[in-house]
Structure formats: C-alpha cells, structure tokens
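During the no-cost extension, the postdoctoral fellow (Dr. R.K.) reprocessed legacy sequence entries with the updated structure-token encoder. One reprocessed record is reproduced below for audit purposes.
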Amino acid sequence: MSMLQEFKAFAMRGSVVDLAVGVVIGGAFGKIVSSLVEKIIMPPIGMLTGGIDFSQLKWVLKPGDNSDPKHKIAEVAIGYGDFINTIITFLIIAAAIFLAVKAINRMQKKQEETPAAPPADVVLLTEIRDLLKGKS
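Re-encoded structure tokens follow.
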C-alpha cells in the first residue's frame, strides 16, 4: 500500500471526518456566541454598571506619549476588560453546552424507558412454552 493510499484511508476514516465537521461547526458556534455576548448581553450589563464598556477597561502600566511625532511612545497596559468579556463568553458557551447535553441525555433516557417489543421468534417461543406447560 502506497503512502498516498494510506493517507487517503486515514483521512477518510469516519472519526477523522466527524472531527473535522465538529471543528467547523464549533468555530461557527463560537462566532455566534461571541456575537451574542458582544452585541446583546454586554450592552445591558454595561448599562447596569453605569455605561462601562468592559472591552475598554485596562490598567495602564506606562502611558503612551504622542506629543513628538518623530518619537511616539506606545502605551503599555493590561487589558483586563477583554479578559472579563472572554470569561463571560466562556460561561455562556459552557451553559449552552450543558443545556444541550442535558437535553440529549433526557431524550436518551426516555428512549431507554420505553421497552422495545420482543422479536417475533421470542414471542413464538414463549407461546410454544406456554402451550407445552398447558398440556402437562
């Protein structure tokens, strides 16, 4: 088997394709959640906290200086506001995944609770057994 055929067999294996689909869908889901956090959830939170935009919160270690156009000094700051946004995004994603897994588990539990009808051969054997018991 050539290297190309081995690679094709590996790449087309079901688990690899499933993983690729999961990564693509996960990336798209991440963008949806980021948009939800930035555009829908954070504005009311900012309003409740007095109009604070978390993404702009920072701790300036060294202020920048743009007074001399030839020697501009960049600001050095720790942007903890973006960190707060990232934490909120993570919590929302974790809650969404938790609810999805909980719903899937609930559906699987309901399927397990409903007993499956026994196969026809088992029903037939049970009837034969019952008939033989009746003859004795």
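Residues 72 and 121 are 86 Å apart (CA to CA). The longest strand covers residues 59-62. The remaining legacy entries will be reprocessed before the final report is submitted.
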